């Protein structure tokens, strides 16, 4: 490998056939020597050095590069040979040797990193990632214009750092062609600059999407489904995932498919705010989930239908079988499981550990009603620490001190909102159970 003064790369050359000098008699000092002073790095020299001299020279360059790296960055962790080879090719360390070809000088990775850290206050990690992505550029004009535009638009240093750490190649974009049009289309939706910055900081990969064929079409499809630009803005604040998919091949046909089973658009519109990825499966995959739901005895006119389809979309066949084993181990029959699924399919998306722990507590509290969980499967979704145990402890204390005349049913006790529970049972007896209630919530 013969390194260029610019550090752009190398090329292998065979000894010149026209040369009358034998390779074995060629002077290594004549054909290949360090570049220094006024020597012309673009001057052609023939013949080329034999392999042995090339190899020794390359090893020497590698050694000098390693010494330069370690001496200039004493806190740098141990470097691999591949890292040093990359640095040798792309950095100023390569200027120890010159090539037989004329090349253009790129901006060097070390210079880029230093500039980004010193001039724009980016973190060293971000600066190094960006320098690798920009090593092919010949000037820093384009990155500078990108940074200036984003700062002028309102990106803070930390937001800019976060964006470039994840997508450093953005600095190589043409701002007028690849950045401004994407921000403009979001502005035309009525999204404020701070919200646009938040969206792009959260998901900087949107910069890689085509304005007309991807971003524009996705926004039109969302507006057609949701009914207004305000709703599009609202759902994009929940998730920008919609802008990464071809909605004409995913969301749109899935909407029509679910409508054919009796699901209303209004149901789907509400659903995607909680589960934005739900409508983005391939239609063929969605059909398979629907078939599995139908086998469980649920039809499209049930309010639980969409939840049931989502549950199947969230787990593999093996995970589903494992959940069934858990419920059987709790004493539920096949009919009990079907009944629980039809009432509250969401519980099957809970972890096996949570299903066991909550079931044990509820069965113990509901004795001798062994079928309590089957009739009230939705209670399995409640938090043990935040809701179930604090309320049970409060109720036990109030009953022990005869501070309440009538014990509520377990379902009523757990289904009350936090505000309702505190107003009825905690606030009137705050001197007795106030601290107890908050203490158990903090556990």
TrEMBL record:
Keyword Transcription tagged: yes
Biased composition (Low complexity): 17-38
One example of a Gene Ontology biological process annotation: DNA-templated transcription termination
Molecular function via GO: nucleic acid binding
Entry superkingdom: Eukaryota
Pfam family, one: mTERF
Annotated protein name in UniProt: Uncharacterized protein
Keyword vocabulary terms for this entry: Transcription, Transcription regulation, Transcription termination, Transit peptide
Annotated spans, Disordered: 1-44
Ranges of biased composition (kind: Polar residues): 1-13
Database matches in InterPro entries: MTERF (IPR003690), MTERF_sf (IPR038538)
Organism in which the protein naturally occurs: Carnegiea gigantea
């Amino acid at each position: 490998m013969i390194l260029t003064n610019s550090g752009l790369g190398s090329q292998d050359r065979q000894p010149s056939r026209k040369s009358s000098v034998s390779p074995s008699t060629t002077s290594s000092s004549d054909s290949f020597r360090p570049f220094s002073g006024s020597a012309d790095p673009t001057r052609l020299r023939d013949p080329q050095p034999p392999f042995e001299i090339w190899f020794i020279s390359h090893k020497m360059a590698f050694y000098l590069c390693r010494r330069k790296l370690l001496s200039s960055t004493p806190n740098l962790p141990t470097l691999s040979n591949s890292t040093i080879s990359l640095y040798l090719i792309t950095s100023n360390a390569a200027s120890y040797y010159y090539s037989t070809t004329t090349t253009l000088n790129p901006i060097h990775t070390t210079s880029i990193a230093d500039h980004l850290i010193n001039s724009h206050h980016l973190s060293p990690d971000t600066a190094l990632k960006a320098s690798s992505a920009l090593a092919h550029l010949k000037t820093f004009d384009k990155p500078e214009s990108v940074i200036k535009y984003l700062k002028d638009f309102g990106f803070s240093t930390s937001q800019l750092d976060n964006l470039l750490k994840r997508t450093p190649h953005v600095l190589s974009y043409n701002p007028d062609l690849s950045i401004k049009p994407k921000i403009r289309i979001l502005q035309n939706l009525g999204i404020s600059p701070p919200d646009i910055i938040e969206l792009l900081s959260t998901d900087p990969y949107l910069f890689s999407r085509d304005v007309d064929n991807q971003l524009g079409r996705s926004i039109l499809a969302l507006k057609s489904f949701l009914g207004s630009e305000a709703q599009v803005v609202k759902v994009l604040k929940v998730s920008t995932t919609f802008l990464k998919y071809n909605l004409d091949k995913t969301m749109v046909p899935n909407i029509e498919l679910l409508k054919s089973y009796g699901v209303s658009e209004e149901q789907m519109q509400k659903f995607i705010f909680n589960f934005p990825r739900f409508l983005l499966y391939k239609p063929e995959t969605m059909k398979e989930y629907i078939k599995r739901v139908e086998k469980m005895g649920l039809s499209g006119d049930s309010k639980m239908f969409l939840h049931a389809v989502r549950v199947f979309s969230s787990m593999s066949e093996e995970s589903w079988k494992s959940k069934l084993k858990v419920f059987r181990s709790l004493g539920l029959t096949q009919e009990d499981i079907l009944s629980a699924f039809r009432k509250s399919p969401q519980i099957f998306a809970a972890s096996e550990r949570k299903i066991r722990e909550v079931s044990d507590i509820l069965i113990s509290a509901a004795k001798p009603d062994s079928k309590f969980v089957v009739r009230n499967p939705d209670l399995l979704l409640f938090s043990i620490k935040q809701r179930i145990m604090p309320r049970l402890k409060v109720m036990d204390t109030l009953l022990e001190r005869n501070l309440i005349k009538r014990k509520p049913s377990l379902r009523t006790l757990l289904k009350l909102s936090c505000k309702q529970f505190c107003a009825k049972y905690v606030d009137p007896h705050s001197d007795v159970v106030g601290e107890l209630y908050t203490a158990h919530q903090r556990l």
